[in-house]
Amino acid sequence: MRIVTHTTKIIFTMLLFLSFSCKSGKPLKTVDHVDLKKYMGKWYEIATIPQKFQKGCRCTIAEYSLTDKGYVRVLNSCRKDSVNGPANQIEGKAFVNKQNPAKLKVQFFWPFKGKYWIIDLADDYSYAVVGHPNRKYLWVLSRKPTMDSKIYEEIITRLKDQDYNTDLLVKTNQNCNSL
User: Is the terminal CB of the chain with fewer CB neighbours within 10 Å at N or C?
Assistant: First the structure.
């Protein structure tokens, strides 16, 4: 496995875009409560609004762990260009908003931070949906590589209620070799 270096410019550009918020009509609502200890661990990307910094990614996984310094370690990984392609990963950190733990800020390159808002979350932490107030960024995550279609459709309905253009969502291929 190698640390992503050829995507540095793309991620840098992404973080610049994430730092600006072109809000749609109504404010994006986050979940009322997040237990960060329960949120930690491995998440499989089920669907996303495609971004340049994820171009060619298959089998995308995010792993989160709390640090003793009060932030969350973020490790994103994927297979490049095919399910058997080279494994790529990038490490960053997420900073917790003490007043609202559902509103994190993620940083892959100092000093740029992007908004990482948890906008939907299963009571048992089996799935989560992460977005940005500008509604150009969206990730549907699950603890398993697949998601029940009924649950996925319920998420889509709630995303539409939050003014997301769900037609932009693309399902992620998770039929992969382990990362």
Answer: N
